[in-house]
Design a protein that fits this description.
- The complex is a heterotrimer of chains A (356), B (550) and C (266).
- Chain A contains 14 helices and four strands.
- In chain A, helix 3 crosses helix 12, helix 4 packs across helix 11 and helix 9 packs across helix 11.
- Chain B is an all-alpha fold.
- Chain B has two domains: 144 residues, no CATH class; 265 residues, ABC transporter involved in vitamin B12 uptake, BtuC (Orthogonal Bundle), CATH 1.10.3470.
- In chain B, 72% of the residues lie in helices and 2% in strands.
- Chain B has 23 helices and four strands.
- In chain B, the strands form two sheets. Chain B has a two-stranded antiparallel sheet. In chain B, strands 3-4 form a two-stranded antiparallel sheet.
- The longest helix of chain B has 51 residues.
- Chain B is globular and about 75 Å long.
- The C terminus of chain B is likely disordered.
- With 266 residues, chain C is an alpha/beta fold.
- Chain C folds into two domains: 150 residues, Rossmann fold (3-Layer(aba) Sandwich), CATH 3.40.50.300; 77 residues, no CATH class.
- In chain C, 42% of the residues lie in helices and 22% in strands.
- A six-stranded mixed sheet of chain C has the order 6-7-8-3-9-10, sandwiched between helices. A four-stranded antiparallel sheet of chain C has the order 2-1-4-5, covered by helices on one side.
- Classes of the chains: A mainly alpha (356), B mainly alpha (550), C alpha/beta (266).
- Chains in contact: A-B, A-C, B-C.
- At the A-B interface, helix 2, helix 7, helix 12 and helix 14 of A face helix 1, helix 14, helix 20, helix 22 and helix 23 of B.
């Protein structure tokens, strides 16, 4: 008998047990919080629905940014730390066009055209910034040890932030309201904000388009080939440099549009606005399984919804005041939990081990 | 004929590049902001920024073609690059009457235009600007066509003169500042000082170039006593360094001592993170969490305000600050034990943010003060005397650095240190060599965290009050960057990195707005040009160079 | 005499693929045994099961009288098994000497406080480790190269350094994964001599994975042949050479010439 116990004890990993217990403890606390919140009925059903819809639209933005992280990570195995700032570049630049259009009255007389123009400008700006960053800061370092490009990316992040602060100023600017998107509308019997509806629809359309692009076009296939194995892909005649540039363009274009959508939800733009969404989006990419395109989308929505619901649903039930302050804590806790129970993210990472 | 065409095409391209960089620095506002700082007499840093943005492009371009092209052509090309660069910048004031740049670019405005045109109006002024650009290009072409030794020496002397001019406040701020007065203007160097620095630099180059062979012969000779001259010299240098280090704050005065203190605190943190990242290869972006814990522990245990819980002295509280940070390092280390590099980075970053957000929250406000932080943290007493001024703290921090460096060095030279490095190189193989990865990782986290806790404790006592805003992600990134700028895994590198990334920006505070921009740009430049750091471990240098090069 | 290692019914699966299938194998104390087989036959997986890198789903691995399957690699190493890798895996940014000293890790017991305070235990162990590392450098013929970074050593030296690192833990059983891969005939015969020398001088038991038939036939006392995760034959070199199933397995993959030339030289 004691032989058996000894045999068993020798093979137990205390670390795994502790980590699992840690994860379970958080889950139990979360459940207690949820029960508390529901029991006390702090919010009405409508308010909960509002939270969810807000979460989905915010999640859509996260997902769009997360795609940029995941695409670049899938190919270069680097965290493009500056991606959040590329998102900011688009949103901030778009503001000036919005303000000009508003000044001449076009903004509200031709809202769809205005929105398309603003998105186009935001996309182009983001893409240009991303291309310059890639060319100057990342390309020369492709074969460097992993820390080096990470530091460069951090440097690029600061550089972009403070360049735009220098160019556009340190003030907070606000996108003007677009009249047709003010107020609520009914969808399937739910009253939801029109802006949220717009953001949700657009982000889903864009994601579908991206998925189709990566999955079915020749360029998308080349991209996946490079992600799988750079050397083999280049032997097969794929221009790896070209594919990497394409990846940055694609990610940046999505980030630029995400910037405009973000500005539509939150109205305000400023030079530092890319930082937090950038980190959140990277978190979303990891939650979904980095390198995995559908994973990034799923991760974005899950993170968005958790963040919107978590404070009210979990923390208030635990009696924590001003719980909205802690929404970022929820996001990061979710990340830790996912990594504890599913180390490769929800949908699994698309990386071969030896490359990392 | 064909190569001629490509040469001129390339010159035009470089002129455009020079213009683009010039426009960038103008529109971002660098030129205008730096104009407030005179470097040599009337020549401001703003002017120098413009000249440098054209000059660097011209220099690199001309230097590339130095062998192939005649001197006359180089001069013409220099004028072209400089002139074209200046012309692009001059387009701003020229077109300003028709285009409202200010709507988008905050810095575009009459003040900028008048600065660019020397106050002479858009047309005359722009012509002058282009002329200056072209002349500058010619000057650079002349320098490029000098023989190698003189060319390098002149460029170096030029850069050194600018640096000295820029940092001349440092000299006047010293307690012995009067000694430098004859060479300083109201701000920056005067002509005499500039010429002197320039000349000294070249003279030094000349001297060191002609001295070398003699010196190496000298080093070989051994004294009969068994102590080589090199050893003797090292001892003398060591003793001198000790005296300088001990006397430095008396020489520098209060403000510069404060700057050094910040450098010192970052050095302690850097030594700790160097264990985690440099030795053990664990990428930690949430390092600020332990700094915050150390500081809050010190605050809670010693504060005489309403939040103080123990009213202890600094000395009683320090071990607890270190211990709490260490335990937190282990606790936060456990969930990430099984995580791979980049996941580790984002999760640790998350931990750092969680600590900051919790410190800021209303939830924990009754305990740790929320956004209002903890006030009234007393200074450390010492045998009836109070460690109070920055100069006093300098010595306290010096002791802290000594302790941290001692521990880090001794650990590195042990079984544990080798286990860390083996793990950095190859985790699987390290495990197959009998290394317990759990223990090895957790000790790395624990030691890293404890150094940070020590720095946090000293910091809390030094500034007297702490706020959650002092503990943002920027600190983690700063510490990570400084160990990389210094050279990963290198202990002296940590100090060099702190000087460069913490000391310099403190000194250049008046450009506060652009501090981070310059910081970001230099991080990129550093990684591109010198990825092994300023003071690398000899081993590390070979590695990084080889991988970047091939 | 009791065997040093007994594998009984070891099975390791990856999803649907059975990499090692119900494998039995015994290594006698002080002998040189080999596992051969075509690429992907499961030889390295078997190695990884022994060293604890993988946990076999079924079966037992008994080392020196104790069951070791499922233990973590560091514990297996501390019990006395050391290994080298097919594609040399040195700590490339550490010097040769440091590499060997890392290998000695299981024999050292000083803790961090010993290192900080430079206690007697620390000094004694470090001194011993340094001397042992120097001795091993000489033993594998790398004297004078101790301060070179491992990555800068020539290929053959890296192979030998890897063996020295494995020997530093003073193992009872040494696992060598294709020690002659990528070597020319002269280097190969030197390596053969060296492996024999290891056994004769240090009294080690050695398990080899090899592709090179000549090497296997020359130095092994016992050979197991694997194909598709299964052991298809086991015995002395001359028995293996005559075994029809082995010849078939190799002929099917066009490696008959290897067998023949090995037979000719043996």
């Amino acid at each position: 008998m004691s032989e058996k116990i000894k045999y068993f004890l020798e093979r137990i990993s205390w670390v795994d047990i502790m980590v699992w217990l840690f994860g379970l403890a958080i889950l139990v606390i979360a459940v207690i919080g949820v029960i508390g919140s529901i029991h006390n009925a702090y919010y009405t059903k409508e308010q909960w629905m509002d939270f969810v819809v807000f979460g989905i639209s915010q999640g859509g933005v996260y997902a769009l940014i997360a795609l940029g992280y995941t695409l670049v990570y899938g190919i270069l195995f680097m965290i493009n730390f500056a991606h959040g700032d590329i998102f900011m570049a688009g949103a901030f630049t778009g503001y000036f066009l919005a303000a000009k259009l508003n000044q001449y009255g076009i903004y509200n007389s031709h809202p769809i055209i205005s929105l398309l123009l603003i998105m186009l400008l935001a996309m182009v700006t983001s893409v240009v910034v991303a291309l310059i960053t890639e060319r100057v800061a990342y390309r020369p370092l492709r074969k460097a040890p992993r820390l080096v490009p990470l530091i460069t990316a951090i440097g690029a992040s600061f550089t972009i932030e403070y360049t735009f602060r220098g160019l556009y100023g340190s003030g907070v600017e606000a996108y003007p309201d677009m009249k047709i998107f003010v107020g609520k509308t009914s969808v399937l019997g739910l009253r939801i904000l029109k802006v949220h509806l717009l953001v949700i629809i657009l982000s889903i359309l864009l994601m579908a388009a991206l998925y189709a692009y990566v999955q079915y076009t020749k360029a998308g296939k080349a991209m996946r080939a490079v992600a799988e194995d750079k050397d083999v892909a280049s032997l097969m005649g794929v221009d790896v440099d070209r594919v990497i540039v394409n990846t940055f363009i694609l990610g940046a274009a999505l980030a630029g549009i995400a910037g405009v959508l973000y500005a539509l939800i939150f109205k305000q733009v400023h030079f530092f606005m890319g930082f937090i969404p950038g980190i959140k989006a990277f978190t979303a990419a990891v939650v979904g399984g980095i390198g995995n395109v559908p994973g990034a989308m799923l991760g974005g929505f899950i993170l968005g919804i958790f963040e919107a619901l978590g404070p009210g649903l979990i923390l208030e039930g635990l009696g924590i005041p001003a719980s909205y302050q802690l929404k970022d804590v929820i996001a990061f806790t979710l990340l830790v939990l996912v990594l504890i129970f599913r180390p490769t993210g929800l949908m699994g990472e698309r990386l071969s081990e030896e490359k990392v | 004929m064909d190569s001629q065409n490509t040469f001129w095409k390339s010159a035009v391209k470089n002129g455009l590049l020079a213009g683009a960089i010039g426009l960038y620095s103008t529109l971002v506002g660098l030129v205008q902001a730096f104009n407030k700082r005179a470097v040599i007499e009337q020549l401001s840093l703003g002017h120098i920024t413009l000249l440098l943005s054209w000059g660097v492009v011209a220099y690199v371009f001309l230097n590339h073609h130095r062998e192939a092209e005649s001197k006359g052509k180089l001069i013409a090309a220099g004028a072209l690059v400089g002139g074209l660069g200046a012309f692009l910048v001059a387009l701003l004031p020229m077109t300003a009457q028709w285009v409202d740049y200010h709507f988008v670019f905050v810095h575009a405005g009459p003040e900028m235009y008048s600065l660019l045109t020397f106050g002479k109006g858009p047309w005359v002024g722009s012509a002058m600007l282009v002329a200056v650009g072209a002349l500058w290009g010619v000057l650079i072409a002349l320098v490029v066509s000098l023989p190698t030794f003189w060319r390098n020496s002149v460029v170096k002397a030029f850069l050194i003169t600018i640096t000295v001019g820029l940092l001349s406040d440092l000299f006047s701020g010293m307690t012995i500042g009067w000694m430098f007065q004859p060479f300083l203007g109201v701000e920056g160097l005067n002509i005499l000082g500039a010429v002197l620095v320039f000349g000294l630099s070249i003279a030094y180059d000349y001297w060191s170039a002609h001295r070398k062979p003699k010196e190496s012969a000298e080093a070989v000779a051994t004294e009969p006593t068994g102590i080589t001259k090199a050893q003797l010299r090292r001892m003398v240098v060591g003793a001198l360094a000790l005296v300088v280090v001990a006397g430095l704050p008396l020489l520098l005065g209060s403000y510069l001592s404060h700057v050094l203190n910040m450098v010192g605190l970052y050095t302690i943190m850097g030594l700790g993170l160097n264990i985690v990242v440099g030795y053990a290869g664990l990428l930690d972006l949430g390092y600020v969490a332990f700094f915050a814990l150390g500081a809050y522990m010190m605050g809670l245990l010693t504060s005489t305000g309403p939040l103080g819980i123990a009213h202890w002295t600094f000395w009683e509280a320090v071990p607890f600050s270190i211990l709490v940070a260490m335990v937190a390092g282990i606790l936060l280390g456990v969930p990430v034990l099984r995580m791979r590099g980049d996941y580790l980075a984002i999760v640790t970053l998350g931990f750092g943010e969680i600590i900051r957000i919790l410190a800021l929250s209303n939830w924990l406000k009754p305990l740790i003060g929320g956004a209002q932080g903890i006030l009234l943290i007393p200074k450390p007493p010492l045998f009836g005397f109070k460690i109070q001024t920055p100069i006093h703290f300098y010595y306290l921090i010096l002791v802290g650095i000594g302790l941290a460096a001692f521990v880090a060095y001794r650990l590195r030279e042990s079984r544990l240190g080798r286990a860390w490095m083996a793990m950095r190189e190859d985790e699987d193989v390290a495990e197959a060599m009998g290394i317990d990865l759990v223990v090895t990782k957790l000790t790395a986290f624990a030691f890293g965290a404890s150094f940070s806790g020590l720095a946090g404790a000293i910091f809390a006592s030094y500034v007297g009050s702490i706020f959650p805003h002092s503990f943002n992600l920027l600190i983690s990134i700063n510490v990570l960057s400084l160990i990389i700028v210094g050279g990963v895994g290198s202990m002296p590198g940590v100090f060099v990195g702190s000087l460069a990334l913490v000391g310099l920006p403190e000194l250049l505070r008046e450009f506060a707005e652009y501090r981070m921009l310059i910081y970001g740009l230099s991080l990129i430049a550093m990684m591109l040009l010198k990825p092994e750091g300023f003071w690398p471990e000899p081993i590390r240098k070979r590695e990084l160079r080889e991988e970047v090069g091939d | 005499m009791e065997p040093i290692l007994i594998a009984k019914g070891v099975t390791k699966r990856f999803g649907g693929l059975v990499a090692v299938n119900n494998l039995d194998f015994t290594i006698e104390r002080g002998s040189i045994a080999s596992v051969i087989g075509p690429n992907g036959a499961g030889k390295t997986t078997f190695f990884n099961c022994i060293t604890g890198f993988y946990t076999p789903e079924e079966g037992k691995i008994i080392f020196d009288g104790r069951e070791i399957q499922g233990l973590t690699p560091d514990r297996v190493t501390r019990m006395g098994i050391a290994r080298t890798y097919q594609n040399i895996r040195l700590f490339s940014n550490m010097t040769a000497l440091e590499n060997i000293m890392v290998g000695r890790h299981p024999l050292m017991h000083h803790q961090w406080w010993d290192a900080i305070l430079h206690t007697r235990r620390y000094k004694r162990e470090e001194q011993e480790a340094l001397e042992a590392a120097r001795r091993l450098l000489n033993f594998v013929g790398l004297q004078g190269l101790g301060d070179q970074l491992a990555r800068n050593l020539p290929y053959g030296a890296q192979r030998r350094l890897e063996i020295a690192r494995a020997l530093a833990s003073e193992p009872k059983l040494l696992l060598l994964d294709e020690p002659t891969a990528g070597m020319n005939p002269q280097e190969t015969s030197e390596m053969i001599r060296f492996i024999r020398h290891l056994r004769d001088e240090l009294g080690l038991s050695i398990l080899l994975i090899e592709h090179d038939m000549k090497v296997v036939m020359t130095i092994s006392e016992k050979i197991a042949v694997m194909d598709f995760g299964k052991k298809i034959a086991e015995g002395k070199p001359e028995e293996i050479q005559r075994n029809p199933r082995v010849i078939e397995a190799y002929l099917g993959r066009g490696a008959a010439s290897g067998i023949k030339s090995a037979t000719a030289t043996a």
